[in-house]
Design brief:
By secondary structure, the chain is α/β, with parallel strands linked by helices. It is built from 12 helices and 14 strands. The strands form 4 sheets. A 7-stranded parallel β-sheet has the order 3-2-1-4-5-8-12, sandwiched between helices. Strands 9-11-13 form a 3-stranded mixed β-sheet. Bound molecules: nicotinamide-adenine-dinucleotide and sulfoquinovose-uridine-C1,5'-diphosphate. Sulfoquinovose-uridine-C1,5'-diphosphate binds near residues 102, 209, 255 and 299.
Length: about 400
């Protein structure tokens, strides 16, 4: 298939682009490298030394003979995006190109606004470009499990059968997102469902859980292909953060009681899920929702697992309970359905001691790049004007 990956320089996007290219698809990428600039703004850098895009693509070509074409630009620029769609004529567009950090969106007004403008406008531009230039193309959009929040009932895959005053309907599952970022995803979901309804766009909205890991078969081929591995308080996700903290014996930063339960997925399953969605496209006018995660854990369970594996390799780390900087339930019911991707053939990699071992190994391997000043949370949901202690900006390599 001809597949366009928006946000292909990012964590999920880079791994996906290589996986799809290896599988024989004709892959192109669009990205404006804004994520590398946000790292620069925050004074943070990925644990792993990611290379500039030109070097990444050259290494991939040299190793595999496969060519991935690159378009540098901002998808909030409609002219740029429509040009790419017309040139590439994709059969599927995988849309990762958003600001994806909840803490970033909660820093202050400016960051909340820029997050929602970037995400909502980019997705709207894409819907209009597909309608005009590629009406049969399948949109595979990365949404998030956090759109649902943590309701006290089972979470369905996108839609729920409701009986009300003697009548029944299949309706979108209620959304209770927990940050301005998560809200941007809800706005996207509504815009996508509406475009499917009025224009007959085909869409799959993947409500993905928290991703962990960094190595995939493809990114492991050479250090020039290495993927990002964020551990800072703004972009680092919880399990990746705990592994990096353990590598330097920093107490694991559990927020509050640690009973927050979320769905988690190995990055090797992320890339497979994307391919599965592309290979069996939604019908014209259909807006499918798949919950894309494989296991659910509490934050405290993850902390204990990392603690135990670290101890086996001589790293004794404490588990700290910090006051929760977020407004979220610290203990709650959570049971989210996730069978649709398994029905399409997903065979999950489950979080095991051996995987934690390898995450810890990578963290130890690059421990000279770890800045422990990036561990403690500085963005508090209760404040509308967070003053972050500015770490020294690091050079943005593009
Ligand atoms: P990332 O920040 O690593 O990558 C996003 C990429 O998109 C970056 O390379 C960035 O430069 C690019 N981008 C952002 N705005 C753009 C714009 N306007 N124009 C062009 N390029 C732009 O993020 P990620 O972790 O790879 O996440 C990818 C997607 O998956 C996001 O939509 C995120 O919400 C979703 N998701 C991620 C996770 C996770 O744990 N990482 C979990 C669930 C869902
Ligand atoms: N947490 C800690 N300690 C930490 C970091 C986080 O206890 O050091 C807790 C948070 O309070 C939260 C949970 O761990 O309860 C998950 O936080 P996270 O930062 O790992 O993930 P989150 O903010 O939810 O966002 C990430 C991605 C986002 C994606 C989302 C999927 O950054 O792009 O949408 O996971 S989901 O959580 O399902 O919405």
């Amino acid at each position: 298939m001809r597949i366009l990956v928006l946000g292909g320089d990012g964590y999920c996007g880079w791994a996906t682009a290589l996986y799809l290219s290896k599988k024989g698809h004709a892959v192109s990428i669009a990205d404006n490298y804004v994520r590398r600039q946000w790292d620069h703004e925050l004074g943070a850098q990925t644990l792993t030394p990611i290379r500039p895009m030109a070097q990444r693509l050259a290494a991939w070509r040299d190793l595999t003979g496969e060519e991935i074409s690159m378009h540098v630009g901002d998808i909030t620029d409609h002219e740029f995006l429509s040009g790419v769609i017309q040139e590439e004529r994709p059969e599927a567009v995988v849309h990762f190109a958003e600001q994806r950090s909840a803490p970033y969106s909660m820093i202050d007004r400016k960051h909340a606004v820029s997050t929602q403008v970037n995400n909502v406008v980019g997705t709207l531009n894409l819907l209009f470009a597909l309608k005009e230039f590629a009406p049969d193309c399948h949109l595979v959009k990365l949404g998030t499990m956090g759109e649902y929040g943590t309701p006290n009932i089972d979470i369905e895959e996108g839609y729920i059968n409701i009986e009300h005053n003697g009548r029944r309907d299949l309706l979108p599952f209620p959304k209770q997102p927990g940050s301005f970022y998560h809200l941007s995803k809800v706005h996207d979901s509504h815009n996508i469902a509406f475009a499917c309804r009025i224009w007959g766009i085909r869409a799959t909205d993947l409500h993905q859980g928290v991703v962990y890991g960094t190595l995939t078969e493809e990114t492991a081929l050479s250090e020039a292909l290495i993927n990002r591995f964020d551990y800072d308080e703004v972009f680092g996700t919880v399990l990746n953060r705990f592994c990096v903290q353990a590598a330097v014996k920093h107490p694991l930063t559990v927020y509050g009681k640690g009973g927050q339960t979320r769905g988690y997925i190995d990055i090797r399953d992320t890339v497979r899920c994307i391919e599965l969605a592309c290979l069996s496209p939604a019908g014209r006018g259909e807006c499918r929702v798949f919950n894309q995660f494989t296991e659910q854990f509490t934050v405290l369970q993850l902390a204990h697992m990392v603690h135990d594996v670290a101890r086996k390799v001589g790293l004794n780390v404490a588990i700290d309970h910090l006051p929760d900087p977020r407004v979220e339930l610290e203990e709650h019911y959570y049971n989210a359905k996730h069978s649709k991707l398994a029905d399409l053939g997903l065979q999950p990699h489950l979080l095991s001691d051996s995987l934690l071992d390898s995450l810890l190994n990578i963290s130890v391997q690059y421990s000279d790049r770890i800045d422990a000043g990036l561990f403690m949370p500085q963005v508090n949901w209760r404040s509308h004007r967070n003053e972050r202690k500015q770490a020294a900006p690091v050079a943005a390599a593009v």
